[in-house]
Amino acid sequence: MGQHRVQELRLVVTAEDYEEALRFYRDVLGMPEVEAISDEEGRVAILDAGRATLELTDPQHAAWIDELEVGRRAAGHVRVALRVDDSTAETRRLEEAGATVLAEPRPTPWGSLNSRLEGPAGLQLTLFSGGE
Asked: How confident is the model at residue 8 (pLDDT cuts 50, 70, 90)?
């Protein structure tokens, strides 16, 4: 397949409430801080989210996934999907930390258990466990 030209995928999110977003994604969700910069130009934190992939979908498939996970069209053009060990337990933990549950964990046709939440900075999160 040849050499990869892209070596890292970095999803950049502008958070109006930076401190809350940092607390949630770093401290609650457990993404370790790799680098942080704070100066007169503002603040940024780079968090390690494990292996990254870019999933591209057409509008029809995106609508189908929303219907499957939430029961209606819910996401904008960006949704973050995170593989976790136990999507049910993580859904509860993130809800207790302030995320809004849009859909409880439910089985998918490909064998995973998926839930949908909205986290700080307006990010829709799919938590999935099991499956391939």
From this structure: confident
